[in-house]
Amino acid sequence: MSATKSRYPRPSNDELARLYTELGLSCPDIGWLYDRDASTVRGWLVAADISTRPRGSNAAVHFRKGERSAFAGRRHSPESIARVRAASIARGAVPYLRNGQHWLKGSLPEANPNWAGGATPERQEFYRSAEWKVVVRYVWARDNACCRNCGKDWRTVDRSTEQTFHIHHVWSFQISALRANPAILVLLCRQCHLWVHSNANVTRAWLPQEPDSPNFPDLDGIDKIADLEAAELEMSTPTLFDFEGMGAAA
User: Residue ranges of the domains in the chain?
Assistant: First the structure.
């Protein structure tokens, strides 16, 4: 029911007793009459000291487990479907398909009711950037298209069963200064990437170390790749981390 104030006043206790006890109306039925929800009506009954029935006891609208529903096997007729469709459109619902096509196909972004003026989440915007695309190529070349944890080679895997490898941020994506720095990026197969983020990774391999660890980076001294073209050609492994010493899967 509407969260706004109802147009109809609360019925008297005598009227409640007549509707609920004599006529056998349910709480939702009475709520529909007075523009209230069922829980509000039930509260009225309790306050009026009217004995209530167990919830779900209305045989007219419920059926017990094991009983066949009266609607089983039945379908809406074309006329019924047309009436439901017309009622939905009348209350502002938009048909999913128009003439067999998605109703937004070929329309401008502004036509989408979820359009937010072109605002894109930060992560999606970053992953679409030219800088990230260059870093991706760099990491794949540096790691020779092999999982840094188990050594699986992307060029020899069964492509019908193996999903694409992932580039894993050793340090959180939330540290914006490190997002595009290949020194904190490693290539992992999907299974190893899931393992890294699981409780099974008790040694925290390929995850941030404690501040006193030799693998803890100097955050103030880290810069992003300054020259993207040079980064594509430079294949030497960055020296920020000793990757070989960061552990392997158990």
Answer: 1-67, 124-245
